[in-house]
Amino acid sequence: MLKLFMIISxxxxxxxSGICLQVxxxxxxxxxxxxxxxxxxxxxxxxxxxxxxxxxxxxxLSEVEHNGCRLFNDIPSGHDSGxxxxxxxxxxxxxxxxPDELIPIAWTSSMDALSFIETQKxxxxxxxxxxxxxxxxxxxxxxxxxxxxxxxxxxxxxxxMHSTRPHYGVQFHPESIATCHGRQIFKNFREITEExxxxxxxxxxxxxxxxxxxxxxxxxxLFTEVPGYQQLVNNGDGQLYSKASRSSLLQNSESNASCSGxxxxxxxxxxxxxxxxxxxxxxKFKQLAGKVGGAKNIFCELFGHxxxxxxFWLDSSSIEKRRARFSFMGGKGGTLWKQxxxxxxxxxxxxxxxxxxxxxEDAQGSTSSTFxxxxxxxxxxxxxxxxxxxxxxxxxxxxxxxxxxxxxxGYSLKVECGASSNCHKSKTPDxxxxxxxxxxxxxxxxxxxxxxxxxxxxTSTTPWLDNTEQxxxxxxxxATEEGGESILRALRSSECQGSFMVDKSREEYxxxxxxxxxxxxxxxxxxLCLTTQMRKRxxxxxxxxxxxxxxxxxxxxxxxxxxxxxxxxCVCCSSPERFLRLDRNGxxxxxxxxxxxxRGATLEEDEQRKLQLQYSEKDQAENLMxxxxxxxxxxxxxxxxxxxxxxxxxxxxxxxxxxxxxxxxGKKRSDVSAxxxxxxxxxxxxxxxxxxxxxxxxxxxxxTSPRGIYSGSIGFFSYNQTFDLNIVIRTVVIHEGEAxxxxxxxxxxxxxxEDEYDEMILKTSAPARAxxxxx
Length: 775
Hints:
This protein has 17 helices and 35 strands. By secondary structure, the protein is α+β, with helices and mostly antiparallel strands.
């Protein structure tokens, strides 16, 4: 039986031209559940007033009492009942303005919103925190909870229903990770829908003149069920060939060859590009890294000469538990090597959104340029889909990057991921990638070193593997105990002038924070990740030496060095944050950071600061909002029900700061590619705010300079459809003789403008200090 229903939640109730308001008016005979603004819209279309709430409540929880309405079947009610819900709103329905046809069904049961940790009072760590600060708690000098200090004087309407229509609304978010009984609410709404259609189906069909038997019909057999569909590949002429027919194309082909990603779609996506059959060769050297001076010495000896031009290093310089384990490094040299440089078009009309110019330099130095109408990510997707390989080639390798594209995506690529526009043109390319066909990999857990080389199947083997093996085995750890000291003694800048200058003064930045708070108060956003840049002229200098100094002073699990010499561009990144990873088993993982505090000078002060962060209501709200945002982003490309949060609001410690980190995982659907996953979540929500699209629009109107590489992602896209990308923070970008560092923070309703400026300075202090010390 056909059972139609709708769940409505949209971003701006003032947008009266939107379809959702018309749906609420016209679809009177279809079950509808309005969530948050959908709840407010339900009230609005029937004449209720939508007004400012007593205070904005975003990423915080309230206890709820209800009247026993069917929507709340089997859900407790009232104070201390366990029915706690997450709220994201600045506006509410004025309960006194409700028309007779709208019935109130739920309210907040207490006078104040709660932090997430406060709702977990049985947690051992909370008991420890209270015990640790017992003396401070007695005299009132310290509380583990950081509150807004505002108290609601009235209870807030949390739910309504229509008296004659199957329409319901809830002000809170039942889908949030921290809402209790959210699943039960959706189960109840489903049962309401089923019963409604059981009783109303004949009259509905008659009134709508609607043939339900013809609606939403699916093919008897989905294309993905065709036997062997994953072995279908494009032969370059728009034809599809099965695995079995491959022998007619290539002699000595292996019967177990498979193709990457959604290879059945290659001919539809990229009919002009031939398939590339790649072969991987690799060697392993057990426990070699420590014997030759570590990752730093290996990179400097193999790739650090000639200013380390056209080199890369994804550097896990902090390898503590549950952080990155492998480092990948390499440079120009292989026959498949090339560099992609993409710059968005300056034209901003919507028909060209995401389009731009791509320059490709090959291993011989030849360069070609083309205009990409569909943007860089579509090009990258087609490139990755064109690779075919034998999975047995990398059996035994404990990591997922076996060669492929390595580089960065700038923040401005957001226009290829749903953002409406870019207000600021980046001075650096919007994306730069090497195709790495030769690389060295270090396993920091076992100290093993791997060397890998890929080539097209019909080409001859290059001597790179043998040559690199000889270089590694000839290294002496005693030659350079610290690794790369000769480089560190190299050129310092002779043109360095003064200290870093921030694009926005303290007063200007605080005014920008106030603007954000106004937008939040008016319900335009829940959280806005405001940023700015600081800059310093440095002239010509040893950029690799600077990176080596930065990684020593501020080691990080997702650090990176990139040198695109043709662009006069170097990136020295010490990021602690993973954006998104897809492994060979199809598991997607995001690890957003929201919440940062400086480390203490003593052990006691350091522990106090760590707990202060963990129990900060503001930081919990920031983190929770981004967790829910990323659960939604991953849900767009993951199997239903697979998205989960194994770690929520953990505190991780680094050289200079403590950070609050959550982990979100899900199982990728079989009908989406690696690039589809990135497009669904880029830019990382921790750098935009929530809701993402509207927040990016607002930030574009507030910020006065391009973010460039900052706020984007650095990492790899392996030819086997895996990837691992960071969030570009704590990073020095050196371009055309200027060093720039981006910094900022999440603005929420609980933000203090002066504190937000101080947090921005804190986040830039480690890379800025590294530059000053090195120069």
